[in-house]
Specification:
The structure is a homodimer. By secondary structure, the first copy, chain A, is an alpha/beta fold. Chain A has eleven helices and 14 strands. The longest helix of chain A has 21 residues. At the A-B interface, helix 1, helix 3, helix 4, strand 13 and helix 10 of A face helix 1, helix 3, helix 4, strand 13 and helix 10 of B. Strand 13 of chain A pairs antiparallel with strand 13 of chain B.
């Protein structure tokens, strides 16, 4: 059994607890929290809840520590810190800052001789792998990534900060015509506005200026101004009833030419349709914990990403079983 | 530059020659043939055509030998044979015989200290990888593989062997309702007849008994009797005009449950839509040649499959470029 420690018990940590229960070779040792451990109830019988301050006491009882904090403030410090004492896995997802995060984690993991597997999830993660495979196979081509239909936490939060807004959910939605273009084999140029629209569901305070809220959303730099955005004002009840899930997903599509004169088009498409974004991400983390454990067992060290992981390391099946049943 | 030797110059070998030309770090050393080398014209300037009997003379000039023969009779002998002297890559695709092929190739490659990367293509190959990833991430689920719409060479050949048939093409076609079922999250049981239909386009000899041909096709054991099959008699001209391509493709779909009580469904779908089946397969072979070269350079030995290859090894980009641009 691979003994897992979870740091952080938000949506991701809770999802990981459920994912561990689905894998016979993984066992939850315990959850580490910044809150008072007494205030936190977990599902798994026999697993403990501990203060994150005591984590080093359990060093010998944990094979892989999975960091389930956020990319903005938690992981940039946590992953290098815990890589000093543990095999660690994270889902760091701020694409632009991955090289810096990698460098910091790599230095810590190389010094301690541990493995740190970062940016495990679906984007970065499974989408990244698919961009890599598709580009390696079809070099004369172009790839497209679409996200959605799904809830963007960052965009929802941005709306909630507007004066007069009580609550909000924002969906990122791929434009059907753009998806068709990506699949057409014509490799069209698609701008930001062409690829996605943004749908907002907003609960306004009584007496709030809805026209002004809508204008503020639609013109918000970076978040909304480059997109076609629709704003729907709904009641708190409707928001709760219809929009309490955290679905997401998306598409990675690459069309590449083959043949003597590039006369043939070949289209590779990978897509996800997820009822629960955090539960799927944590399911990837669970498989990555297994892979990290194996890499560490083989004496590898330093920071790695899914690009470095042989697919077989993610599966509980033996090499023989994989070849016989899945190849 | 990684210097590639090609053994066999059918559709696959020709496709590989084109694929090599698309990759700046790959160079074609030459093509090895059982035919008279003088009878064979290749595209690549500066590359040679040699008798396969002379292949050992060029051992030092070839980094990776890619075997482009068939799985029925060529590869079972060729891959173990050439693994004695070369880093080799093949596209062995008889699923049921993979364990035996692996064992034979592994013994040869381990003895010589070479790397042999087998069963590289799309199924086995990219589809296999996707079955593995999806199953590792979503253990509580079920996966479905669909093939087509595309030409099955084996089924076309089987029709051609019927008395009174001059030529034929057979398309394997996924059933739309079955695809929708696989994507529904309900994980239906789908039998052979539910998943695919078979469409046949047949050129009959003048005066041939078409009713009998149709009956012979539809009741042919293993090939057609378990499927709903349609038979269309057309002219040789129409067959040439409308059915001379070798398109193929398919879908790997897995739906898996997550959450405390499996209350959320998540669907992973990978699909290919290929104008040219052999050119796509050979594009995978080209990327695999790069990976095999790297594995050999790192001192690995023995028989491997794509399950054992870290994705990064398939790409010409550096680890830094991959993390910065694709992660």
């Amino acid at each position: 059994m691979i003994r897992i420690g979870i740091v952080g018990y938000g949506n991701l940590g809770k999802g990981l607890e459920c994912a561990i229960a689905q894998n016979a070779d993984l066992a939850l040792f315990g959850v580490f929290t910044r809150r008072n451990p007494k205030d936190l109830k977990i599902i798994t019988e026999g697993a403990g809840v501990y203060s994150v301050d005591d984590i080093l006491k359990y060093k010998e009882e944990i094979d892989v520590l999975v960091l389930c904090g956020g990319s903005a403030t938690d992981l940039p410090t946590q992953t290098p810190l815990y890589a000093k004492d543990f095999t660690v896995v994270d889902s760091f997802d701020t694409h632009a800052k991955i090289p810096a995060h990698f460098a910091a984690v790599d230095a810590a993991a190389k010094e301690s001789g541990n493995i740190a597997l970062i940016s495990c999830g679906w984007d970065p993660g499974m989408f990244s792998i698919n961009r890599l495979y598709a580009g390696a196979i079809l070099p004369d081509g172009k790839d497209y990534t679409f996200w959605g239909r799904g809830v963007s936490q960052g965009h929802s939060d941005a709306i909630r900060r507007i004066e007069g807004v009580l609550d909000a959910k924002q969906y990122t939605v791929p434009v059907e015509a753009a998806l068709e273009g990506a699949r057409s084999g014509k490799n069209p140029e698609l701008g930001t506005r062409d690829k996605h629209t943004r749908e907002c569901f907003v609960v306004a305070a009584e007496g709030a200026d809805k026209a002004k809220i809508e204008e503020t959303i639609k013109t918000m730099p970076h978040y909304f101004d480059e997109y076609n955005t629709t704003v729907n004002f709904i009641s708190a009840e409707e928001l709760k009833r219809e929009h309490s899930g955290i679905p997401h997903g998306g598409f990675v599509i690459r069309c590449g030419k083959t043949g003597k004169n590039g006369e043939n088009s070949n289209i590779i498409e990978y897509s996800l349709k997820l009822d629960s974004n955090p539960e799927f991400t944590s399911s990837v983390l669970a498989a990555c914990a297994r892979a990290a454990y194996r890499m560490k067992s083989e004496g590898m060290k330093g920071c790695k990403t899914l690009f470095d992981v042989p697919p077989a390391y993610l599966s509980p099946l033996s090499a023989e079983e994989l070849r016989k049943n899945l190849l």
